[in-house]
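Tip: read the tokens left to right.
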């Protein structure tokens, strides 16, 4: 049985991904900050919940230790991320907000990826692959939003993390890619639902709908199940066409 680590596992994209990977026969080790697994859908003999904060070294190390105890880590799906607690103009952004967002989204993602990559390097190559790592970045990695600059910066950092590890690990049989979601219906976007409803209705998204966590989960699976086995260092944009420049 293959094993996957999924962070942010109790949120929209993390939960949808965990459910899909379980359905496909993976054993899943999921981490989130809540003190217990409060999601009945994820209660399974093949799901292990680890409470932890991605920004904390000891929590990352505990997650990797528990997951690697199963004998092998086949997939790391870095989903966990936060938006600023308060949207503010970049001329008013606080250091505290910047540090909180980048500590989780960027630093936490980097060092968890580093830790898991070192485990994967010790694993046997099976069908040309030691493991797969997928980072969930964002359309904000390449789209300016001056009311949440710290989030944009953190996700741009995730894109470079993806490129760096892809470059370093591809020759070792570890495939590293990222997904850049567009407007996805999750808890993070719930507070600005009306804004995005209006933008989508106004034509921002060519497919004329919100994205759903399941859309991202399916993309992650395609990057991990061999479907896209010759794809490395790629940013897979899943946004209903929002990135298309149109006149």
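Filled-in amino acids:
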């Amino acid at each position: 049985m293959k094993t996957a680590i999924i962070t942010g596992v109790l949120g929209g994209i993390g939960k949808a991904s965990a459910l899909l990977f379980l359905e496909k026969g993976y054993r899943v080790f999921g981490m989130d900050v809540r003190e217990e697994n409060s999601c009945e859908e994820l209660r399974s003999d093949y799901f292990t919940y680890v409470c932890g904060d991605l920004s904390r070294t000891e929590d990352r190390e505990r997650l990797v230790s528990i997951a690697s105890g199963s004998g092998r880590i086949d997939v790391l799906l870095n989903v966990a991320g936060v938006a600023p607690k308060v949207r503010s103009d970049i001329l008013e952004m606080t250091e505290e907000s910047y540090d909180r967002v980048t500590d989780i989204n960027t630093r936490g993602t980097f060092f968890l990826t580093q830790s898991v990559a070192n485990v994967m390097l010790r694993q046997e190559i099976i069908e040309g692959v030691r493991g797969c790592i997928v980072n969930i970045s964002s359309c904000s990695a390449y789209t300016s939003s001056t009311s949440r600059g710290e989030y944009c910066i953190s996700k741009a950092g995730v894109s470079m993390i993806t490129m760096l590890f892809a470059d370093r690990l591809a020759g070792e049989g570890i495939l590293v890619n990222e997904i850049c979601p567009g407007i996805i219906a999750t808890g993070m976007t719930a507070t600005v639902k009306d804004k995005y409803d209006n933008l989508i209705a106004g034509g921002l998204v060519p497919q004329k709908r919100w994205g759903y966590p399941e859309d991202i989960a399916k993309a992650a699976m395609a990057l991990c199940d061999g479907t896209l086995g010759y794809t490395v260092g790629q940013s897979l944009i899943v946004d209903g066409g929002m990135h298309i420049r149109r006149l």
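Residues 82 and 140 are 13 Å apart (CA to CA). The mean pLDDT is 96.
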